[in-house]
Amino acid sequence: MNKENPVVxxxxxxxxxxxxxxxxxxxxxTIEEVGDATTAGTVCGGxxxxxxxxxxxxxxxxxx
Length: 64
Ligand code: FES
Known about the structure:
This protein is mainly α and 64 residues long. The chain is 48% helix and 8% strand. It has a single domain, classed as BFD-like [2Fe-2S]-binding domain (Arc Repressor Mutant, subunit A, Orthogonal Bundle). It is built from three helices and two strands. FE2/S2 (inorganic) cluster binds next to loops. FE2/S2 (inorganic) cluster (FES) binds at residues 9-11, 40-47.
């Protein structure tokens, strides 16, 4: 585990950089799309708020 690249989704062990790369590379817009692409957020849902913030950071907004 690394400070710069924390695990966002502990259920599926998905890191922040994996989620950010998926959002950028696949042009993801919604939390659901991030879940489909990375599996992050698909188990307990506890990381969904963080995924939301990453989407907002990269896209400037989040489609729901
Ligand atoms: S921490 Fe991501 S689904 Fe549980």
